[in-house]
TrEMBL record:
It comes from the Bacteria. Transmembrane segments: none annotated. Keywords: Signal. Residues 1-33 form the signal peptide. Gene3D superfamilies: Endonuclease/exonuclease/phosphatase. This is Endonuclease/exonuclease/phosphatase domain-containing protein.
Length: 745
């Protein structure tokens, strides 16, 4: 440890007082007593280019540091803290080390003074945390999930050197300017951890505000960045494989020029933990500079700005290649992740559906085990109905009421049926469905074969002036927690086809060529129908609880693929053509569960092949939330080690591209309108998780394929903070729906 005399008052406060040295040993106070003060930069450590270990070189040691309190923080839980940073003329002079540090102070507004210290003699037992005070503290160097920090429980104020400072004038003023490369950007923010960074005016939002129980966050880029200078809707951040990415030839650079702003500072400024950062949307422009400390949480270096964002509305994401209504002799089919559309009824068939339930476990699907609290259950029926109303509005106004919708993330529940008294004008509210919420299993008298949440969505569409929809779905497509795929269709435009017991997919013995035993559900003769099989033993042998080999149980799917066969109708109501829809919701996280997701794509390819082997002219559409990127995008670079001798790219959808007989509509989208070719935003950049693949015959009939940008770019709901949706129906889901228009002549 390098000793350094600083400007702390070092004389004894009173005769006989006791001082504590940096080593923790006690010594008698005297006029010449010294303490060893180290630079905060020494605590944080110097980060060289290429470093990957950001552990403090003084981790676990007791140190004295001196700095200015630059900012207070307040978390949604009520936990408090503050940032401490050295004056600009008193740093270690090392640009590779941070001059600031965060002090976590739990629920307290004060920090204890050190026994026998000048601060104790002057202030008593406690120092009130005050922005603008320059203080000397003795603290133990700690680490909280990578965030080097001090904790109030082991931090003591030794001296208050000066008060009433303007903290932003006293410390180095740094305007955020991270490099393009993601690794270099991480090093950049690590070198500023705990320091104040300023977000300049004219910065551009690159992803709508997201909301978590810990607060909200907004991703942005500087207005003078190359990406921000692109024209129109292209002025945003795309993943590297996308043709509009600005770092040519790089792989997964992460668009390091992006930065994220959090609201711990805003809450402290406003003095309430019920506030949240402004509801920004993609393309909004930040009109006033904003400053805050850099805090590491959930692997993200967030600038905890002190004031709420001042925003000027930019382009409207929903106008980026919007869905067009179906024309004459056309039909539209949509795939729509409705983001945990759970009703506010306690399903007697589920132990993980409602407050007070004990949870759900499944030895065959351990990854899907669910324990309280159940964060996908709405807070009230009113909140649930608000979600229904907003999604109904999107289906009618933005998707123009497709003939068929494939839904993901609906609730696997069928204990209700339509109230006989219901009409689209009856205004029954929660009573539009009548339910048996007492009896379980075969004893339940409420079900009617339609999943309750999407059935209620259909009724709400009709109540608000939309067309009549019918809900359908096989509850066997659900995972342990009760999330499933489903279908909504307009009876005047489409109908479920009758299927035979010998049908190659819907029959009792599906002709799906896959090297393991089929699940018992495959023998059901029905339409729609869930399909699944055991994972190959070679895969099971490699399954782990986390990482690329993580498995959601020992079947191919934790949420089985669901197939439906529809006939589309012409304007006179006659059958015009038939189409097979394969609805999917693969396991989540593109860079984990890699082996398992690869098998899901292989099985989906086998389903499609079974249909096309029986009828090569069949019209097949496979789609849904595949939770991984289309070619040539990939979470792993060519040659990058995935695990052992397994190297990238992972090409998890290879089976779908090579063995299904289907073509990716993403290729069509990225060629026709690249600025709109995405369905999701993550860490400030676009990506494509929701995809559609079509058979050769259907491909010839495709008129258009688009993603409706009505969700991913808009701020998420913040009901728990008392905020109503800022953009009406927009932002009701975290995924953008995919829509295909076909000629049915």
């Amino acid at each position: 440890m390098r000793s350094l005399r600083r400007r702390a008052r070092l004389a004894a406060a009173a005769a006989g007082a006791v001082l504590v040295g940096a080593s923790g040993f006690l010594f008698a106070s005297s006029a010449s007593a010294q303490i060893d003060i180290v630079h905060i930069g020494e605590v944080q450590g110097s980060i060289a280019d290429g470093d990957t270990d950001f552990t403090s070189p003084l981790a676990g040691q007791t140190v004295y540091v001196q700095g200015v309190v630059t900012q207070k923080t307040l978390e949604t839980t009520g936990n408090k803290g503050f940032f401490l940073q050295e004056k600009a003329d008193a740093t270690d002079g090392d640009p590779l080390s941070s001059d600031g540090i965060f002090v976590f102070n739990n629920k307290f507004d004060t920090v204890r003074t050190l026994n026998g210290s000048p601060a104790q003699a002057e202030l008593g037992a406690n120092w009130n945390v005050q922005v603008g005070d320059e203080i000397v503290v003795r603290a133990v160097v700690g680490n909280y999930f990578g965030n080097v920090q001090f904790s109030g429980g082991s931090t003591f104020v030794y001296d208050v050197v000066e008060s009433g400072l303007d903290p932003l004038a006293a410390v180095e003023q740094v305007v955020v300017d991270p490099p393009n490369d993601a690794k270099a950007s991480t090093e950049y923010f690590r070198r500023h951890l705990g320091m104040q960074l300023t977000v300049p005016a004219d910065s551009v939002v690159t992803a709508g505000r997201d909301v978590y129980s810990s607060g909200g966050e907004v991703w942005a880029m500087r207005g003078d960045s190359e990406a921000a200078q692109q024209e129109g809707f292209a002025s945003r951040a795309y993943r590297d494989a996308h043709p509009l990415d600005t770092v040519e030839g790089s792989f997964d650079d992460g668009n390091g020029y992006l930065f994220v702003m959090g609201d711990m500072g805003i809450r402290a400024t406003e003095g309430t933990n019920e506030t949240i950062i402004a509801p920004a949307k993609t393309y909004d422009v930040i009109t006033e500079a904003n400053t805050g400390g850099v805090y590491l949480s959930f692997a993200k270096y967030g600038i905890q700005v002190a004031n709420d964002l001042a925003l000027e509305g930019g382009l409207e994401p929903a106008e980026n290649e919007p869905v067009e209504p179906a024309g004459r002799n056309e039909a539209t089919i949509a795939s729509y992740n409705i983001e945990n559309l759970y009703d506010f009824r306690d399903n007697p068939n589920s132990g993980c559906d409602f407050t007070g339930n004990g949870g759900c476990t499944d030895a065959e699907d351990p990854e899907g085990n669910v324990k309280p609290p159940f964060n996908y259950v709405p807070a009230s029926y009113e909140e649930y109905e608000a979600q229904l109303l907003r999604q109904a509005g999107q289906i009618m106004d933005d998707l123009h009421s497709p003939a068929i919708l494939m839904t993901q993330e609906g609730e696997a529940q069928d204990v209700c049926s339509v109230n006989p008294e219901w009409t689209k004008r009856s205004d029954l509210g929660a009573d539009r469905l009548v339910c048996d919420l007492v009896n379980a299993g075969d004893a339940n008298t409420g079900g009617d074969g339609a999943p309750d949440s999407i059935q209620e969505l259909a009724l709400v569409i009709a109540e608000n002036g939309g067309p009549a929809y019918t809900a359908a779905g096989d509850l066997d497509s659900a995972d342990t927690r009760g999330i499933m795929t489903g279908f909504l269709y307009q009876p005047k435009l489409a109908g479920l086809s009758k299927v035979k017991s010998w049908d190659p997919v819907f029959g009792a013995e599906p002709a799906i060529e896959y090297p393991t035993e089929a699940d018992a559900i495959n023998a059901d003769v029905q339409n729609p129908k869930a399909l699944n099989a055991a994972l190959p033993q070679a895969v099971v042998d490699q399954c782990t609880n986390s990482g690329v080999y993580a498995c959601n149980g020992f079947d191919v799917y934790s949420r089985p693929a669901q197939v439906a066969k529809f006939h589309l109708k012409d304007k006179w109501g006659f059958k015009a053509s038939e189409i097979y829809l394969i609805n999917n919701h693969f396991s989540s996280s593109p860079n984990t569960r890699v082996l398992h997701r690869t098998e899901q794509a292989n099985y989906l390819a086998a389903i499609s092949s079974a249909i096309l082997d029986h009828d090569r002219k069949a019209k097949v559409l496979a789609g849904g939330d595949l939770n991984v990127f289309p070619r040539p995008d990939d979470p792993f670079a060519e040659g990058q080690v995935i695990a052992g001798d397994w190297v990238g790219p992972s090409d998890q959808l290879a089976g779908l591209y090579e063995d299904s007989g289907l073509s990716s509509m993403y290729d069509y989208m990225v060629e026709e309108h690249p600025e709109a070719a995405y369905s999701y935003t993550y860490m400030g950049q676009t990506q494509t998780l929701d995809q559609m693949f079509v058979s050769p015959r259907l491909l010839r009939e495709v008129e258009s394929a688009v993603s409706a940008h009505i969700n991913a770019d808009y701020p998420a709901d913040a009901y728990e903070f008392g905020e109503e949706p800022a953009y009406g129906n927009y932002g009701v889901s975290d995924h953008d729906p995919s829509v295909i228009t076909i000629d049915i002549r």
